[in-house]
């Protein structure tokens, strides 16, 4: 006979109820997200669009760090490459902006795979330092090829205009476009993690030696984790170019990579909601703290990271999950 108290056992009915609540919450969140651009001022719509852009980039970083266990301090590099790939195609070759998205994703996927190969024997701090070095070298490299990238002045583009048949304003169109692309990226990541690939990445994260004994091909999945992560960052970079309509090397310093890593740690590594919460953190914390002092964003970032790691080691998503389980436990007691 089991010694587990009856009150602590989960039943199929309670599991089904929890799933219903999750689907209801997802439907409510989707409805609110779709209605947001029609209820908010254009600047707030722009801010929410940038939250979605950062969430796409953090989706890739979450796949690499949270699920594959590979630390990267150079994720902003792929974000920048996706941005420049879209900007160069739009500015130099007059490519329609929607076609720059798959091209940016393909370019960053290949480059991410190429980066994954020489880092196969690195892990932990050494891997972080190598990826950070790549991010540091990117800015002078972009300035070096000024004839293509615009050099220090960058490239100024025209904002994409919505199709006439939509009847939407520009900010509404870009927001809904970013929302659709972010949802598609999230669906792809969810499908990957629920497949054999996801199980292999989790085995790699938990114990590389044990994963190799179980038949997981470490080299293959490490390089693919870098490639997929870079691909999502490239998609975010392309959408970022559409929204900002400007790219410059100084916008993609190593601080961006550090900020993205901080965002996914605060949002919740390995969680479903972590990238979205991290995107909001990356977008709104500097905005609200900039008015206090020029150095305030860095200070606030540090303080919030320490606070989250102390109060919620699994990030804001883990804190929300614990609050939900506590509320469900109280409800069952009643």
CATH topology: ABC transporter involved in vitamin B12 uptake, BtuC
**How would you write the strand order of the largest sheet?**
1-2
Look at the helices and sheets and give the structural class.
mainly alpha
CATH hierarchy: architecture = Orthogonal Bundle
Return the CATH class.
Mainly Alpha
How many distinct helices?
A: 14
**H/E series:** HHHHHHEHHHHEHHHH
End-to-end distance, in Å? 27 Å
Number of β-strand runs: 2
Taken together, the total number of domains comes to 1
Question: How much helix is in the residues?
Answer: over 70%
Compact description:
The chain has helices spanning 12-39, 42-67, 75-92, 97-116, 124-144, 146-149, 170-193, 196-206, 208-213, 218-244, 254-267, 274-290, 296-311, 315-333; strands spanning 155-156, 246-247. It has 334 residues and is an all-alpha fold.
């Amino acid at each position: 006979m089991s010694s587990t108290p009856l009150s602590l056992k989960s039943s199929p009915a309670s599991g089904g109820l929890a799933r219903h609540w999750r689907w209801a919450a997802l439907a409510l969140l989707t409805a609110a997200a779709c209605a947001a651009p029609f209820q908010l001022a254009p600047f707030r719509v722009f801010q929410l669009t940038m939250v979605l852009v950062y969430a796409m980039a953090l989706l890739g970083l979450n796949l690499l760090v949270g699920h594959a266990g590979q630390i990267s301090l150079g994720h902003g590099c792929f974000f920048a490459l996706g941005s420049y790939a879209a900007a160069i195609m739009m500015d130099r070759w007059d490519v329609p902006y929607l076609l720059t998205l798959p091209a940016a994703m393909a370019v960053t996927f290949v480059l991410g795979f190429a980066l994954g190969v020489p880092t196969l024997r690195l892990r932990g701090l050494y891997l972080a330092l190598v990826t950070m070095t790549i991010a540091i070298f990117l800015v002078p490299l972009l300035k070096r090829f000024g004839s293509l990238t615009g050099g220090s002045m960058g490239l100024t583009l025209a904002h994409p205009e919505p199709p006439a048949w939509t009847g939407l304003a520009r900010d509404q169109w870009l927001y809904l476009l970013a929302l659709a692309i972010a949802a598609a990226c999230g669906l792809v990541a969810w499908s990957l993690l629920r497949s054999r690939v996801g199980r292999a990445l989790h085995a790699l994260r938990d114990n590389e030696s044990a994963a190799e004994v179980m038949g997981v091909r470490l080299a293959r999945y490490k390089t693919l984790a870098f490639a997929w992560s870079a691909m999502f960052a490239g998609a975010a970079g392309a959408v970022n170019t559409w929204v900002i309509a400007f790219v410059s090397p100084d916008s993609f310093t190593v601080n961006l990579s550090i900020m993205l890593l901080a965002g996914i740690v605060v949002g919740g590594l390995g969680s479903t909601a972590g990238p979205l919460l991290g995107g909001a953190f990356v977008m709104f914390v500097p905005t609200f703290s900039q008015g206090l002092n020029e150095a305030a964003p860095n200070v606030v970032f540090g303080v919030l990271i320490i606070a989250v790691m102390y109060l919620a080691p699994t990030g804001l998503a883990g804190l929300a999950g614990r609050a939900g389980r506590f509320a469900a436990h109280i409800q069952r007691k009643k």
